[in-house]
């Protein structure tokens, strides 16, 4: 049965759609779609988005009454190389409870470990998995220090791996902070810049606690690059002591630098985020930096991170756009993160649950909120993801003490 209606042998009209998601409120600012609309799916693709589509045209109908219907979320900062790296979690079980259908793994794999990432993770996951290749050939097998041995920065080898895997590798990753670069300083970022330019892909740079300083980092950023951990409270933070976002960062952003949240375990400060928002500097992308530690809280998952920005005053439309079409554009894959007819039928349903919530940043500073996005159903290529049990965390996945204590109080565990 294809997407076209036809007349069966008994004279009845055959259904035109496989699935109809009916009665929900569509939120897809990137595609210019919003409001009370039904979403029809045929052959794994979005076939129509319109008001009051006749359920008789569909083989099955999903009741989305009381739900927000968005494109499957696109998480621009994740770590999903389970079993071969310090940080990796498994994407599929988390996707089924969070609505994240496209996962960009940023730097878990370097040249030596990318073949395994491709075969065991990218090709076997039910969700869409893409990667930024780490400049360091060993990737993130350990928690940090990946640039401390410059022998692992092999640009020629990385170029070969990129050339053979351009369907999966969408950019280059370099974590730049005092631990990752120990002893080599800004040299690692200079080499990452050279590699990104050679392969003509975006460079994602992580910032946190220096040295190096942000003064050394900024001259190496280019339009189209991604600066992740943009709301860090670390000493490389983009908000100055005067509370203003640095002029050089804003200038680069005017020309296309992407400011990405990447919450993680150590990289999200309410004070930094509030200072930016007060100036009207909204992050371009809201991502999770989900990994073995962050999944335990206070980050938890991408919908929780989006809910934190709702608590800071952003609208549902603004946060959804920053977790769908905006990250897809940053990945140079504007076909993803969209409900536009013809797109892959990656769809997420959410309940916007009203209540009295307390959210925390990585220093466990609290903020009150009244809304929480809770995922209720996730479809990839038109098929619902089954919820399944997640693997136990790795023995080394122990939260910093200040987070562990506060989270156990908050959750009563
Ligand atoms: Zn990360």
Automatic annotation (TrEMBL):
GO terms for molecular function: deacetylase activity; hydrolase activity, acting on carbon-nitrogen (but not peptide) bonds; metal ion binding. It comes from the Bacteria. The modification N6-carboxylysine is found at residue 173. Pfam families: Amidohydro_3 (PF07969). Residues 60-92 form the Amidohydrolase domain. Zn(2+) 2 binds at residues 173, 206, 229. The record marks 175 as: Transition state stabilizer. Zn(2+) 1 binds at residues 77, 79, 173, 289. Keywords: Hydrolase, Metal-binding, Zinc. InterPro entries: Amidohydro_3, Deacetylase_Atu3266-like, Metal-dep_hydrolase_composite, Metal_Hydrolase. NCBIfam families: PRK09237.1 (NF006689). This is Amidohydrolase. It comes from uncultured Thermomicrobiales bacterium.
